[in-house]
Structures are given as C-alpha cells and as structure tokens.
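Quick one, T. Sequence first:
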Amino acid sequence: MESISVPRGPTGFCRWSPFSASTYIKEQELNRLAKLLGRSSPPPRVDRLVVGLGNPGDGYANTRHNVGFQVANKLAKRARLEFDTKAAESRIAEGSLGDLRIAIARPQTFMNDSGRAVTKLLDRYRLSPDALLVVFDEIDLPLGKVRLRERGGPGTHNGMRSITSEIGEGFARLRIGVAPVDPTTEIGDLAEYVLSPFAADERAEADQVIARGAEAAEVAVRDGIKRAMDKFNG
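Structure tokens:
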C-alpha cells in the first residue's frame, strides 16, 4: 500500500499510510465531539515518557534538587513543546520528538511522593515502565557529569525510592551530578545543600550540565538508552 503525505502544520509534512491518516482524522473528530459535549479529550498516544523530578513552587525552582525539572524544561524547549497540560498530578508537555510521540512531565506531588504521579502518568498513556526515562539530581556525581542506566535500584534518592516502590526497577534513568566539583569540599547538611540554589560560581557549569542532560535525554528517547550511554557516560 502506498503512503501519502498528510499536512503537519507549518512545520512541514510527515509520511503516513492511508490507514494512519484515517485514524488521525477519526481521533480529531472524537476530540472535537468531546469538547462539544463538555468532556475532556482523551490523552494522546505516546511512545516514550520522560519524567523530570523536582519540587513544585517558585521557591524550589533553581535548587540543586530540581535539576530534573530544569532538564525537562530544556528538553521541552528543544522539542518546541509547552507544559500546557495538567493531568496525573503533573504538568505535561505532549508532542513529537523526531518521529516519536513523547510526553515530558514534571510531577507536582513533591519529591517524596513522585511514585504516585509516575504511576498515574504510566496509566494515562498506557505505557509499561520500559518506556519511561526518569531524570533526577545525583549527589554522588560531581557537577558537570551525567550518567545513564537502563535499570537499577534507587540509591539514596527519595524520589527514586518512591518510584521504585510503586513500579519496580525496570526503567531507564538519567542522573545529573550536583555534588561539589572539588571532592574535598564538605557538604554538611545534605538536605540543606540539595534544597539550595547553585552558588554563583557554579551557575555556568550548572547551565551546561542541564543542557547536556537534555541532549542525553533526547538521544536516549530517539536512539535508545544504550546509544545514549555510549555517548554520555564516558
């Protein structure tokens, strides 16, 4: 069966089969009907879910503990998406990244209850944990470093402990280093450290690692976690 070009808005065209085109049109008609009836439209189908961990509220926005949110923001910007959906106790940006349909989420449950939101997000999109990538701050990595893993335990991170207690350990994760670059620097109170903003002399390095984290997340989603590990774990 030959494929046809279906308009994709001002950004260009994509190649769809006639079956996919008709399915798309039916979905649009159902969404319009739902709005006319005063019902919310069903969530879009997505291939991958990226969840950046953090705490909601302006007071936490620039803290080390919120680099997961910051990477999610940067990834959404790379994909030209907006966090204009509120569902599953999260703020969500839905759309496409290359040929993949993705959802990028920032849970609004506070860090220690991240698992509740992640469970609802997986249910919303009818995804299994192997379609999930979680991005979070890592106190055991120095600022400037990122590390990807296919699966594993939560370590000492409370957000990850919450998630693994809800859905198990079978999902990919991207750790963003937030520890002092100088290993001899004493942190003191850990909670106070991660809930504080980056120091002025760390800000440039922090911006770079957030951008690198977004690039790593994009490669993991687009090309697979192993390709991303080969590129970014060195």
